[in-house]
């Protein structure tokens, strides 16, 4: 039987197609796959755009509020309202959801507002001078941000009450309340931040906080309140930095029973009592503050293991630094204490049972008295150390004790002056 022969090619690859006239060979051997690469890039771009649109949608719509809108806007069931009270009413529809943004146009918005939406951002479009909430603001949800409003409760209660975590008040004016800002009334609040606010003309304290953790007071102006500028009780890890606290009827900062507080680079002046009082406070850093024209610059009472360093304390009426009963193991170094020149005003005054404090490298000049010891206890209880690096102008030491003269001399020798 006859079989047709099979031809076997030595090169199984197909011969290249002939080039067209004027065509050049590509230096990139994978150029023919460029269309596939472009398709992959277009697919990736579409995925990215879709992700961004999904992300934007998850943030929800932007609500707007404008008091100059028609009255019907409060009932149109869209994202535009005329009043804030209508927006936050329980029956409002639609209502802002978590992390939604509410933009408020200039105007006066009367009524108390209760915010219960987590992560809500309430922001004015024209700032606090032109956007006024005439009523109280109660924040009952976490991570809320309020910025750019004048909040005036007209003496009917606190301007702002905060009872949850992560709340931010930014660039607001809070005034004419019983208290300016009240924090931690219902439960301890964490990570509350007040930044660049003006808190003034409140009947009691400008700010009152209790049982808060990681509170931040940054670059606020607290002025002319009927109580303390800020009364802070049982805090932990607070940061108080670059604030101006002035002309308050009681003290500037009153820190009670708190720990791990940082008080840095503040200007505290012209308050009726102490610029800073630490009562039963521990592990506090008081550094680089300017404390002037108060009754007292720094007042420690039952305070322990605090560090006071690099402060300028001048022109206070009754004295520079007072260290009272129960204060121990504090470090007071590198402070400028000067011109506290009221009648008999001491630059440094140690009163009663104070022990194991380290006081050194301070500069005391032009005070009524350089260093004053007073109390009715035995001289052995005055065990604080004044290191030789301290400079005390006129070297005036006054020991005010109800003892005989030879006991007073013994007390002076017990305090380490080298």
Shape descriptor reads elongated
Strand content: 25-35%
Q: What is the percent of helical residues?
A: under 10%
Distance between the termini: 129 Å
Report the strand count: 42
> What is the subunit organization of this protein?
single chain
SS field, number of helical segments: 3
Average pLDDT works out at: 82
Rg: 34 Å
What is the SS-derived class? Answer: mainly beta
Please give a handful of descriptors for the protein shown:
16-stranded parallel β-sheet; 13-stranded parallel β-sheet; disordered C terminus
Structural features, described:
The structure is a single chain. The strands form three sheets. This protein has a 16-stranded parallel beta sheet with strand order 2-1-3-6-9-12-15-18-21-24-27-30-33-36-39-42. Strands 4-7-10-13-16-19-22-25-28-31-34-37-40 form a 13-stranded parallel beta sheet, with no helix packed on it. It has a 13-stranded parallel beta sheet with strand order 5-8-11-14-17-20-23-26-29-32-35-38-41, with helices on one face. It has 418 residues and is mainly β.
Summarize the model shown.
With 418 residues, the protein is mostly beta strands. It has three helices and 42 strands.
What's the structural blueprint in terms of helices and strands?
Layout: H1 34-59, E1 62-65, E2 80-81, H2 84-87, E3 101-104, E4 107-110, E5 113-115, E6 121-124, E7 131-134, E8 137-139, E9 145-147, E10 150-151, E11 160-162, E12 168-170, E13 173-175, E14 181-183, E15 193-195, E16 198-200, E17 207-210, E18 216-218, E19 221-223, E20 230-233, E21 239-241, E22 244-246, E23 253-256, E24 262-264, E25 267-269, E26 274-279, E27 285-287, E28 290-292, E29 296-301, E30 307-309, E31 312-314, E32 319-323, E33 331-333, E34 336-338, E35 346-351, E36 358-360, E37 363-365, E38 369-375, E39 385-386, E40 391-392, E41 397-401, H3 405-414, E42 416-417
């Amino acid at each position: 039987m006859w079989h047709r022969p099979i031809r076997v090619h030595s090169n199984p690859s197909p011969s290249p197609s002939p080039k067209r006239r004027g065509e050049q060979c590509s230096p990139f051997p994978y150029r023919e796959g460029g269309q596939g690469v472009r398709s992959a890039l277009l697919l990736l771009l579409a995925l990215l755009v879709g992700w961004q649109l999904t992300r934007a949608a998850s943030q929800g719509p932007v609500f707007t509020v404008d008091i100059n809108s028609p009255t019907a806007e409060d009932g149109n069931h869209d994202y535009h309202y005329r009043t804030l009270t209508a927006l936050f009413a329980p029956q409002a529809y639609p209502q802002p959801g978590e992390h939604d943004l509410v933009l408020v146009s200039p105007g006066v918005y009367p009524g108390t507002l209760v915010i219960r939406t987590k992560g809500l951002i309430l922001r004015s479009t024209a700032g606090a001078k032109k956007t006024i909430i005439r009523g109280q603001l109660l924040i009952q949800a976490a991570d809320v941000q309020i910025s750019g409003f004048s909040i005036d409760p007209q003496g009917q209660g606190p301007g702002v009450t905060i009872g949850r975590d992560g709340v931010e008040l930014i660039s607001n004016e809070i005034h004419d309340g019983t208290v300016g800002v009240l924090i931690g009334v219902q439960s301890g609040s964490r990570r509350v931040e007040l930044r660049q606010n003006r808190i003034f003309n409140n009947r009691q304290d400008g700010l009152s906080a209790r049982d808060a953790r990681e509170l931040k007071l940054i670059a606020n102006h607290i002025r002319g309140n009927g109580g303390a500028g800020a009364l802070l009780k049982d805090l932990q890890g607070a940061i108080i930095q670059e604030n101006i606290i002035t002309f308050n009827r009681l003290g500037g900062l009153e820190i009670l029973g708190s720990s791990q507080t940082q008080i840095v680079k503040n200007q505290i002046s012209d308050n009726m009592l102490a610029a800073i009082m630490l009562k039963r406070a521990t592990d506090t850093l008081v550094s680089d503050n300017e404390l002037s024209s108060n009754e007292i610059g720094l007042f420690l009472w039952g305070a322990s293991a605090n560090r006071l360093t690099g402060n300028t304390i001048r022109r206070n009426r009754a004295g520079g630094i007072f260290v009272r009963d129960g204060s121990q193991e504090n470090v007071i170094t590198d402070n400028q204490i000067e011109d506290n020149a009221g009648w008999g005003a001491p630059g440094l005054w140690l009163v009663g049972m104070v022990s194991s404090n380290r006081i050194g490298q301070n500069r005391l000049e032009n005070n009524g008295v350089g260093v004053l010891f007073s109390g009715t206890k035995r001289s052995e209880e005055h065990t604080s150390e004044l290191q030789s690096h301290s400079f005390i102008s006129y070297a005036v030491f006054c020991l005010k004790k109800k003892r005989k003269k030879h006991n007073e001399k013994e007390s002076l020798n017990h305090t380490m002056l080298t």
